[in-house]
Amino acid sequence: MAGNPGTGKTVFGGQFLYRGAVDHKERGVYVSFAESRGRLLHNLSRHLEVDLGKLAEEGAIKVLDLQAVKEEGVSTVLEMIVEETRALNAKRLVVDSLTAMAQAFKEPVELRIILQMLFSRLIEKMGCTALLIVEVPTGRRELGLGMEEFVADGVMILRKRVIPRLDGRLVRELEVSKMRGTELQQPLYLFTLHKGFKVLPPFKVKPVDEKRRFQAMPDTDTHFSTGSGDLDEVINGGYPKGSLALYEIDDDISQLEWELLLCPALANFMSQGRGGTILPAGGIDADIAARAVMNLYGFTQEEVDSLLRVQEPQTGTSPDRPYRSLLEGLDAEKDIAQLMRTMGEVKEETGKPAIYYISLDTAETLWGEEATRRIGSLATIKVKKEHDVVIKLTHPALKKINEKFVNLADLHLKMVKEHGAILLYGEKPRTGLYVMEMDTSQGYLLPKLTPII
Ligand SMILES: Nc1ncnc2c1ncn2[C@@H]1O[C@H](COP(=O)(O)OP(=O)(O)OP(=O)(O)O)[C@@H](O)[C@H]1O
Ligand SMILES: [Mg+2]
């Protein structure tokens, strides 16, 4: 395991032993050349949010503090490591770090000799898995190893990378450059050190085992819940009452993926007998939207008929449905009037706050740039006055339209993909990076957001 300073090598090593002890009943030895036993246990326990000290007391893990071994010869020290490993019958060994070990003695030792010894005595004879940490000085990208890379069964590299297109936010990357006997899906993964070391694989759809109806999330005096506790937390409490939330979504994010983040708010409104009006993104018509709301969140046909309104350009073939509101698609002014009317309708019927979704892309396709800006502004004025919420979906290519709404927006969030993982971050409020996964534990689809730190 190689990496620059502060990339998470020690956290990974600690977790390797912790999981071994807890999940697999495998004892482990941590050989530390850089930190004292006490500090290592304290820091790792804090980072992993577990009690490693207790595991050490119970004998499940052992930390060997070898900071001061200058006086000993290298073979004595190696003998010690082998002895401790054997005495504990440890199946996992971490050397933190191989680099420090090679420099620890009066006479610097060749890594080759240390490695040979570890291999023949521990790894081969005792079936011990050794994680050898290698320090790479800041600014150097190559490992600067040599033969170790060939001898090891696996080579992993940890990196911190600042990404310009994410406005200088930092991501952490794991490169698995070698892993004998393992077929790798991809060479690069994102990871986070939030509550320990966690790899963030490409976004995966999960099955819902037992479907349940959406459970309402309570609002506060000042904010509507987004329907997702995680998203509420990221944006400091939800959508402010009377606000515009702008979501800028990269083209490689699929419909299902942004729906996962945006639609719980609609479900949360509907579950409280409140209305929602949608000008959907391309490819989604009223029937698709209605079916999705019933399927994903367990609403009934009656609820959809009375609470949902979906705007759809007239194609001449759609049968009448209470939730369908047809737009002429010819005269922008007429359509805008119709849209505003529909927005008012459910709100009047329910006598409750309402939520609106507007796809700026759809608006631009139907009516062009000028009219899109006009309708966007009118809708914003309306929700601010009436203390509702409007969510506008857009993508980076609609630059001129976005510019206008970035200034008006109370919230401005962006979704991008990186190594297959979906990332969310806020420009307004400014937030760090979060990775979005699918959470089906409630019986319906919710986003799970984990910070990348
Ligand atoms: N849960 C956490 N929350 C916040 N920060 C964390 C958390 N876990 C780790 N960090 C930060 O990440 C950094 C990386 O941890 P770690 O000590 O594992 O790096 P390292 O690669 O071993 O660095 P070095 O080469 O300097 O030993 C730590 O300095 C710590 O500040
Ligand atoms: Mg370290």
UniProtKB/TrEMBL annotation:
Keywords for the protein's UniProt record, in alphabetical order: ATP-binding, Nucleotide-binding
Record-level Gene Ontology MF annotations: ATP binding
InterPro entries associated with the record: GvpD_bR2, KaiC-like_dom, KaiC_dom, P-loop_NTPase
Pfam families: ATPase (PF06745), GvpD_bR2 (PF20440)
Presence of keyword Nucleotide-binding: yes
Presence of keyword Acetylation: no
PANTHER family hit by this protein: PROTEIN GVPD 1 (PTHR43637:SF2), UPF0273 PROTEIN TM_0370 (PTHR43637)
Name of the featured protein: KaiC domain-containing protein
Protein's organism: miscellaneous Crenarchaeota group-15 archaeon DG-45
